[in-house]
Every structure is written in C-alpha cells, then in structure tokens.
Amino acid sequence: MSSLANKPLQIYLRDEQMAMLRALARRRGVSLAELIRQGVDRLLAEVPAAEDPLSDIVGFFDSGQGDLAERHDAYLVRVGQEEKRTWSAKSS
User: Fold this and answer.
1) Domain boundaries, the chain
2) What does pTM read for this prediction?
3) pLDDT tens-place string over residues 34-76
4) How far is Cα 56 from Cα 4, in angstroms, rounded to an integer?
5) What span, in angstroms and rounded, lies between the C-alpha atoms of 46 and 48?
6) What is the number of other CB atoms lying within 10 angstroms of the CB of residue 4?
7) What percent helix, strand, coil does the chain show, rounded to 5?
8) Which end of the chain is more exposed for a tag (fewer CB within 10 A), N or C?
9) In whole angstroms, what is the distance from residue 18 CA to residue 84 CA?
10) Cβ count within 10 A of residue 83
11) Could you report the per-residue pLDDT of 3-21, keeping only the tens digit for each?
C-alpha cells in the first residue's frame, strides 16, 4: 500500500491494549500500524450487508437486463465499443 494513500489517525488505547498489540505485532513481524489496519479490515469485513451504506442503492436502478449480474463484462465491452465508434465518427 502506498504511504500517500494512508491517512493519519490518532487514537487512545489502554496500556494493556498497547502492550498486547505491540507483542502481537512483534510475533507477526509487522508494524503496529499494519496490525491495526489488518484489524480494521477484519472488522469491516464482518459488517452485515444491512449496515453497509452502499446497500441502499442495491435494486435502486433497473437496467432492463435480466442477466446483468452474470454478463456485466459483456455489457461493459459492448458499451466501450459503442463509445469508441462514437468517438471515431466525431473525429472523422
């Protein structure tokens, strides 16, 4: 992960939390920051779909394509080809 993509965050932990996290990071051979990022990733992976803020948009739009979930790549290719033809026609 690029360090430019990381955002600083200041948190306050209890002494016993810090001691246990430092020991775990040492055993795993990772930095304390990386260990905390891994923990955040695990926590977020456990969030039920109903709590996901993007779950509200599921089913919001109707593409009219009954098989969009299965064939989304094919539809994207077709749209890309159509856009390419449109750009070619405009530049001619």
Assistant:
1) 1-56, 62-92
2) 0.51
3) 999 999 999 988 877 777 777 667 666 677 777 777 887 888 8
4) 31
5) 6
6) 6
7) 70, 0, 30
8) C
9) 55
10) 10
11) 567 889 999 999 999 999 9
Nearest to 31 by CA among 40, 39, 22: 22
Cα first-last separation, the chain: 43
Ramachandran angles phi, psi of 79, nearest 5°: -65, -40
Indicate the class that CATH gives domain 1-56: mainly alpha
How deeply is 84 buried, as exposed, middle or buried, from its count of CB atoms within 10 A (0-12, 13-18, 19+)?
A: exposed
Return the residue matching tokens 């969030």.
47
Buried b or exposed e, range 56-77, using 16+ CB within 10 angstroms:
eeeeeeeeeeeeeeeeeeeeee
Report how far residue 24's alpha carbon sits from residue 18's, in angstroms, rounded to the nearest whole number: 10
